[in-house]
Amino acid sequence: MKKFLIPVLIIAVIGIYFYTKAVGTYNQLVQMDESVSGQWAEVETQYQRRADLIPNLVNTVKGYADFEQETLTGVIEARAKATSVTIDPTNLNENNLAQFQEAQDQLSGALSRLLVSVERYPDLKANQNFLELQAQLEGTENRIAVARRNFNESVVGYNQYVRQFPNNIFAGWFDFETKGKFEAAAGAENAPSVQF
Fold first, then answer.
1. Whether residue 196 has pLDDT greater than 50
2. Measured between alpha carbons, how far is 141 from 149 in angstroms, rounded to an integer?
3. pLDDT (tens digit, 9 = 90+) per residue, 34-71?
4. Which of 152, 176, 185, 187 has the smallest number of CB atoms closer than 10 Å to its CB?
5. pTM of the model
6. Residue 72, number of CB atoms within 10 A of its CB
7. Phi and psi for 131 in degrees, rounded to 5?
8. Phi-psi domain of 87 (left: phi exceeds 0; alpha: psi -120 through 50; beta: other)
9. How far apart, in whole angstroms, are the C-alpha atoms of residue 102 and residue 79?
């Protein structure tokens, strides 16, 4: 009877250890996945804030009759495209993030062209409404950068945990996959040239 009891106890201890490790790993994966989703929601909130400011900025600039319509149209179209690209937080892969980032980069470029064009209009540059909107946009761009950084940090921690042994085994069983991160825009490594 004793000889039979020892292997049963060993198997039971191994089974309990394996079960508690699987449950602990699963719970940690769920917690980290939710953290990534929460950080993604913050990124989307900041991009939405920027999109909400743009109509006010455009309307303020439109008040100057001789302002270039092409520039305003470009901003409006880029905003429409950027707000139409959405990502499900459960599917944050590199391709989806690249598509989202491309639309946001187009909007950033259109806004940059708008702000450069404004330089030719001293009355507009001095307009209090315009100055306030410009300050809000600058603040929003900073918030976007912080939200993206926090999202990337959350994704890095999650991806490390998912890829570590033996977590990678449990992650595979429970369908937890690595997530994509924000990458720098193409050409961002080159400093812009300023010419007068």
1. no
2. 12
3. 999 999 999 999 999 988 988 888 877 776 645 667 77
4. 187
5. 0.76
6. 18
7. -60, -40
8. beta
9. 12
Residues whose CB is less than 8 angstroms from the CB of residue 50 and which lie 6 or more positions away in sequence, other chains included: 107, 137, 140, 141, 144
pLDDT of 3-21, one tens digit each? 888 888 899 999 999 899 9
Give the tens place of pLDDT for each residue, 93-116: 888 888 888 889 888 888 888 887
For tokens 């400011």, the residue is 53
Could you please report the per-residue DSSP string of the chain? -HHHHHHHHHHHHHHHHHHHHHHHHHHHHHHHHHHHHHHHHHHHHHHHHHHHHHHHHHHHHHTSTTS-HHHHHHHHHHHHHHHH----GGG--HHHHHHHHHHHHHHHHHHHHHHHHHTT-HHHHH-HHHHHHHHHHHHHHHHHHHHHHHHHHHHHHHHHHHHSTTHHHHHHHTT--------PPTTTTSPPP---
CA atoms of 107 and 8, how far apart (whole Å):
65
pLDDT top residue among 1 and 2: 2
- Predicted confidence (pLDDT) at residue 86 exceeds the cutoff of 70: yes
| Spatial distance between the Cα atoms of 182 and 107, rounded to a whole number of angstroms | 16
Through-space distance between the first and last CA atoms of the chain, rounded to whole angstroms? 94
The span from the CA of 153 to the CA of 79, in Å, is: 27
